Amino acid sequence: MLDYPSLAAVAAVIREGTFERAAAVLGHTPSAVSQRVRGLEERLGAILIQRGQPCRPTDLGRKLCDHVDRVRLLEQDLGPDLGRDGILSGSTATVAIAVNADSMATWFVRAAADFAHQTAVTLDLRLDDEGQTANRLRSGEVLAAVSSHSAPIPGCRTIKLGTLRYVACASPAFMARHLSEGFSVEMLAAAPSLRFDRRDGLQARWLREIHGTELGKTVHWVPSTQGFLDFGLAGVGWGMHPVQLVRQHLEAERLVELPPGVTIGVPLYWTVARLHAKTLIRLTQAVQDAATRELQVRDV
């Protein structure tokens, strides 16, 4: 049988990144946490944590951390029946979720709030590109993910949520500076654009699909959804924004929609571990409800 107090120590170090922070969370000394981790490694004959700043899990360490998270969720279902006699009693159940930044800034907060009002389970959100979040689920780092991929993942189920729509826009000052003689595809392609990071292909996709041209080389890299919007409002560059975030700015004419006024969509899916835990059922329902209210749920 696995030594769950030691497993809890391993999981805490992996989650917190250092033995000191793990000790503070567990209410032990760093020395005691280190002894538990080292003792478990010796019994298993394998290294579970790569020491460093921050500490990182080995493949086996990640699998054991994932196991601890699942056991906590299953114990959560038993609730009062366990009292303080659970193998991980005294620890708070947490669900790790991989989610993209634009979902976090728009519709996902409603899902998180609905879930938080129903349960004492906490959320550990990991930000990543929607094209990469599923990889975190495959590795066992998270139990659920908002992803743009519908491909099945072993041990998980996938639900289509809807489409997050994006609109191309820029500030009036940007339009006056770079498109003063009227809209031109060539001039827009050469004008400064905004990109979230190197994986952000929305601007290039819009130009290619709508105007049949390629994105220019003048790019400002802004890895923050709010910062991306602020840069657009300040006239630094043009970019693709979630419709929900810019609707009021467009109505107030702080931003201008670029011709021909065609939005593009990113389909989103909810992929969650097939773990028979009430917590994950509640979470999935909260996510589906929020997506139904906030996302385009039918193709147009």
TrEMBL record:
Keyword DNA-binding on entry: yes
Domain HTH lysR-type: 2-58
Domain of life where this protein originates: Bacteria
Record flagged with keyword Mitochondrion: no
InterPro entries reported in the protein's UniProt record: ArgP, LTTR, LysR_HTH_N, LysR_subst-bd, WH-like_DNA-bd_sf, WH_DNA-bd_sf
Gene Ontology molecular function terms on file: DNA binding; DNA-binding transcription factor activity
Keywords, sorted A to Z: DNA-binding, Transcription, Transcription regulation
Pfam families: HTH_1, LysR_substrate
Similarity comment text for this entry: Belongs to the LysR transcriptional regulatory family.
Protein name, per record: Transcriptional regulator ArgP
